[in-house]
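in:
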């Protein structure tokens, strides 16, 4: 094996060291003057774009939160309005139900009253017919009894007076 001091790569050579330092200095100067500035500028621009993107993302997130909150408020208002509409519809339906019920009751009462009037009119008509029939029968009976002693005008007056004395109110009460 070779001793470590014999290796030419590890031995310090002063001329090579000076040229290496000069080359490094020139390269560093050139890189610093022409490469590091633009590279640093690109890095700074990128850093600024990232910072702006983060700000925009924060702004977009805040806007999204605001929109979400607004959406929630709108949904709550829509629910509230839907409940109000349903409540109003129920109230209107109940009102119409009551109105129809009231109209049906009025119609029933009107028909009942009309039927009562018809019954009363028919009762009066029937009583009138009965009176006329009784008058005719009384006239025939009176004729036979009196056998012509009175003239027809006197017969009629006698029968009408007799009919007026008959109490037909009992018949009316029984008919109703």
């Amino acid at each position: 094996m070779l001793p470590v001091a014999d290796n030419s790569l590890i031995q310090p050579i002063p001329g090579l060291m000076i040229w290496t330092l000069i080359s490094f200095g020139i390269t560093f100067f050139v890189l610093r003057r022409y490469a590091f500035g633009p590279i640093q500028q690109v890095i700074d621009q990128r850093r600024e774009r990232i910072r702006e993107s983060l700000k925009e993302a924060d702004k977009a997130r805040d806007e999204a939160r605001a929109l979400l909150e607004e959406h929630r408020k709108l949904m709550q208002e829509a629910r509230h309005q839907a409940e109000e509409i349903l409540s109003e519809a129920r109230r209107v339906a109940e009102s119409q139900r009551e109105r129809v019920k009231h109209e049906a009751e009025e119609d029933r009462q009107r028909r009942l009253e009309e039927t009562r009037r018809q019954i009363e009119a028919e009762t009066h008509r029937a009583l009138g017919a009965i009176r006329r029939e009784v008058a005719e029968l009384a006239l025939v009976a009176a004729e036979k009894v009196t056998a012509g002693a009175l003239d027809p005008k006197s017969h009629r007056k006698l029968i009408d007076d007799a009919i007026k004395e008959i109490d037909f109110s009992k018949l009316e009460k029984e008919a109703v």
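note: DSSP finds three helices and no strands in the chain.
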